[in-house]
Structures are given as C-alpha cells and as structure tokens.
Amino acid sequence: MALAMTRLGTGFRINSARDDAAGLQIATRLSSELHGMAAARANIQKSTSMLQTADGALDVSGKILIRMKDLAIQAADGTTSDHDRAALQAEYTALTRELSHISIATTFGGTKLLLGDSTEERAAAANAAQAAGAAAANASAAQGAAQGQYDNALANHQGAPTALTLAALTAANDALIQTTAAATVAGEAATESQNYATAVAAATAVDGAFSAPLDFQIGDSDEEVMTVRLTPELTAMHSALHAAASTYDTFGIVRNGAGTDLVIASTATTAIGNLQTAIDAVAAVRSSIGAAGNRLDHAANNLATSQVNASAARGRIMDADFAQESANMISQQMLMQSGTAVLRQAGSISSMLMSLLR
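That's the Flagellin sequence above. Prediction below.
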C-alpha cells in the first residue's frame, strides 16, 4: 500500500531507480530530448526573427531602388534640362545615402545583418576606382578626338564655307559638347571613387552576420544544424549597388560628393540598367532569406510534433496509472481492514472463553 500511496502522491510510476531501472533510463533520455527540443524551438524563433529583420530592411531597399530607377528614367529623357537633372540627382543622392544607412544600421541583437565580407568590399572599391580611372581616361581621349574633329571642321568651314561644312561643324560642335560633359563627369567620378577607395582601405573592418555561412541549431543533437549561406548573394548585391549609385557606402564613410549618376543623359541611361541589376540582386537575397525562413517554419512544426510524441512516450513510462494505483490502494486497505476485523473478532472470542472458564 505504501508504494501505491507514493505513486498517487507524486503522480509518477517510477520514483526511484529500483522501481524500473530500464524505464528510468529511457525516460531520462526522453526528458533530455524534450529539453533540447524546447531550446531548439527558441533558437528557431530567434533565427526567424533575424531573417525577418533582414528581409524587412531589404524590402525598403527594393522600394528605394525602384524610385531611383524612376528618377534615372526621367533624367535620361531628352526633354529634361540640366537644371532638372540636378534636382533629380539631389534626390537620387539622398536615396543612396538611405540605402547605405540601411545596409550599415540593420542589426539584430547588435549584429549587423546586411554587410558583406569587408575584405571583398575593399577589393571591390579598389577595382571600382581602377575602372573609374580607366573610364575617365577613355572619356578624356574621346574628348580629345572630338576636339580634333571640331578643329578640322572649323578650319574647313572657314576656308570654304558651305552648307555641308556648316552641318559638319555643327555636328562636331555637338559631339565636342557631349564628350566634354562626359569627360568632366567621368573625371569627377574617378576622383570620388579613388578617394573612397583610399578611405575604405583605412577604415575599420566590420563584417556582417552573413558574411560567412551562418549555422542555426534547429534540433537537440549536434547533427541538426541548418547552415544559411548568403555571402554570394550579398556580395553581388553590394557590387550592384555600388555600380548603380556612385555615393553608396558600407563602411560608414561620409561621402560629401553630390554624385554623378544623373547629371547627363548618358550616365542616366547607364544608371537605368545598373539599377535594374541592383533590384534583381536585392530580390535574389530576399529570395534566399525567404527560402531559409520557410525551412525554419517546417523545422519548428516538426519539432512541435516530436515534442508532443516524446512527451507522450515519457508519460507512458513515468506517469502513474491513477485508476490502477487507486484500485491497488483500496484493495490493500480492504485487506488490512479485514485482517484487523478478524483479529479483533478473534480477541473477542478469547475473552468470551476466559469468561466461561471462570
């Protein structure tokens, strides 16, 4: 009866190892798994929140890029004046700075999420500076060639002016104006790019959470690890953003330049294609984040099912059967009461016999 009362009092069938040694071992392992699965579910919730934070920031970045593309399309139109392009460039630069702010300031628990590998970023900045320098040299050469053609056309027209020589002179003058503007813009871009590359080389390195493969512990064993790899997508995204916006930054460097993306029609036309590439790159990162988030959702559902089943299995081993134990206790009580009554009756008979003998 004492065993039944102990089981009813604690609610457990196994209260010590001697009650069921094998069952206790199995139940202990199940308890360990249940605690591990509970911790893993908490991990999944935090991991999901991290991915949602990154996705939300990239959603805003995508909307900004769409607006920037609208500005580039307006600037590329022939009816847009230089004054209008300056206004469009001002908004474009402001939006670029917000893109930079989102990339730098998006954090989760103090960890930056959208920054890539700083080593690759430095290399990209150096390569961009070289490319900008080469573009400036080509633009300067084109300007020199246009200047030569203009000088020849001017000499021909002054020597024997005709309608044909005037048309040639006008065309040469238009070409010279365009190449001069392009050379000026390319030179400014090269200077800005070189200054930025120099500043980046001296800046403090900060790598983002996804600059390397990131492991999420999604189960109670060391084998249940989910690895999220966003490094290639983030690298491609930052490269596309640098190409689409001349003042984009991921190192927290103040770039005082106004930008040269929309100041002339030709650069605005180039920006349209670069912006579409950037939009696609941001969408690619979001797609990878979404895929990882979906997997985490399924992992959480699987853990919940496993927890229910493991808890039920542990209960079948550890929990007392109240009906059975109650029946056992009542049976023991009845036997005890019956025995006591028999003993009491036996004592009464003895007393009666002693009375008769007297």
